[in-house]
Amino acid sequence: MEYVFKSNEISKSYGKFTALSDVNMEIPKGAIYGFVGKNGAGKTTLIRVMTGLQRPSSGTYELMGKSFTDKDISESRRRMGAVVESPAVYLDMSARDNLIQQCLMLGLPDYNCVDEILEMVGLAETGKKKARNFSLGMRQRLGIGVALCGSPDFIVLDEPINGLDPQGIIEVRELILKLNRERGITFLISSHILDELAKVATHYGFIDKGHIVRQMTAEELTDECRKSIRMKVSDIKLLSKVMEEKKIDYKVVDSNTADVYADLTFSEVAKDFEKVGCTIINMQEHDESLEAFYLSLLGGNENVQKSVC
Amino acid sequence: MINLYRANMKRITANFIFLGGCIIAFLATYIFTANVMGMTGRFENMGPDRRMFFISIAMMGFFTIFVPLYTNMEYRFGVIRNKIVAGYSQKQVYYSHLLGHLSVLAIMMIFYLLGGILGGARDFWEIALLNIVMFFALCGYIATMMLISFRILKIVALSISAFLILNVYYTGTMIGNALLSFVLKGAAKQVGVIIYNMTVFGQWFSGTGLADDYINPGRFLQMVISIVVTLAMTLIATAGLDKRDLK
Amino acid sequence: MFRNLYADTRSILLSRAFHLALIIIAAYQVFYFAHIKVVYAFIGVSEIDADDIAFVFVSVAAFLVTAATLFITDREFSSGCIRNKLISGVKRRDAFLSAVCGGMLQGALYTVFACLISIPFIGLFSVGFINFSIQEVADYWLVVVMTCMAIGAFSTALVMILGGSKLSYVIGLLIAFVMKVWDTVILDKLYPEKGFCKLTGAKLAVYSFVDKYIPYSYLMIRPHYEMRFYVTGCAAMIVISVVIGLIVFSKRELK
Fold first, then answer.
1. Which of A251, C65, C91, C167 is 20 to 30 A from C226 via CA?
2. Mean pLDDT rounded to a whole number for chain C
């Protein structure tokens, strides 16, 4: 399999503090790689190392087949775009001028892509308005637009939907999917909004305290996220009694709801509950969300945001 | 790096501070050279050629403001990240800015020369020689401003440092005048003259005709000193620059 | 108002920039003394007059006070803390006045510290004052204190008016430098080394006005007017800074 990014035991320390520790990560070509972790886990640090803003304290990595110590690594970097932390744009220039400036810097022969990119990121109507007068969301879009200059093969987006309204979030999601599908662009997206990531990512990397805890494809994640049947009953104690007798794994959600992790037949279940005098109010299939999987993998519920959609 | 330089020049030449500076350079030089304000005494006696050279020191003030403010935008706006991500090194970004500012200096000097010639300066050889020396001296000063601009990332600390350097150069020149006149003798005086001419103020002062002759070590040597200063500042600025972590 | 003033004062006294400014004043005194020693050794003079080492701070006061107040006051805007103050109910007038008082306090403290630092050097390494009586030394330091307070107020008002703008980073420092150079020219014209002052008319009036009433010029030469001129000049600078600053800052839109 071809990888656009492959790291081998990358570590990064700032004095005594270790931000990354022996990170091994592979981003397959053509993937939309969802990079997930708590605040302070090391996501942005790894992105900074990957984009060349910082050097690793130890370890190596390859970007599009070239080692980062190669003299011609810049050729690989030319094929990369990134928005790291906050959008890097000239505040005293308009959206169009910012893109032209990026094209100039990349040595592109003309500015034909500028109009198309402005249209793609929804800033075609901004005219001569300076970026300092843009809202946060508009600056975010402009940052993405700058990253798109030069038709990169690999784009890194660090929390790209920060500051975007629901419409904007949908548009960015559609844009990512479109570029991935039509142009085969590989994406690395770091985000806290897990449900949003789940709608686009084909691969996931979970990072915690500077270590990559797990890497998996979307299919593997789906398999791991346990299916359950959510049952709403009249008496939760009676449900517990029935499940324990049958040795079925279950989890009480609230005073009259539980998730049952087994393949149940409604008629059999109904009979068992009737025997003990418990009424089933509601039963439905329920998938464990990425959020729940994340919690079970990394522990704790701090810093996990529910989807804004 | 040519692309970086071109992108830089496109931005600089659209910058209102630069454009205003060029207009002021032209107007101020013309007004001063032609003695429009009717100055008397020392300034009247200087003649248009020396008056033209006298006002050239204002460019030093301009670059004290322009170089740090403009270069620091890379860090304030974070756009240096775009360049690093695209594969350029920090050294390349530095050189593109340095060359950009030196180009700005050349453009500004054209406006300045135009103002001076229209204001009545006529001695071609004297104008040419003095202003070539001034050009090299200002290159050294710009390299000094670039050194602090790439090393001090906070804009307030950078502005303070830039004006500190300006003050130190000015005060150093005043003290140098006194030391060279009354204190230093022999070899110490020779060394003092070299150090004195390391600053723009020193070289400018020797070209105004207000200073004693011993302060001028020769125009060629002044240019060499300026080139050495420029190279030294560039070397210090770029030492270990690529290894620096960016946020 | 007083609660805000206390909070701002506390913030200034605890800030690293304030401590750094004090260290720089002390270091500069040491460096200048060493430099004088070397120069005197060159010219074969063994005894140092207190006149040469007592008022070292005066030559850098304008720059140092301007830089320190810029650094400390700009924090309000760069960190966004000014927004917290205004949101929590502090009136704009109070926020501005408190900042200006902080600037004046800084000016006074730096000068007092410089005076205290110079005392051991005078006592240990000099033969005493030659051209100053005790009264004149006291007057000189008093004038410097007032001047630094006025410059502190002016510089702080400037930052508050322009806060967040690129201009705020350079304009105070530029004014301090330009005034230093211009004052040198003015003093050279008003008090030439040889002969008499040859200025007349408007130029004489302007130059005399600057020499008498603009605080920056008080730092260029020892006091040579009556105290009332210095008090008037410093007070005028403070009042003008506060009045204009209040008008502008009250109407200013903050981001």
1. C65
2. 90
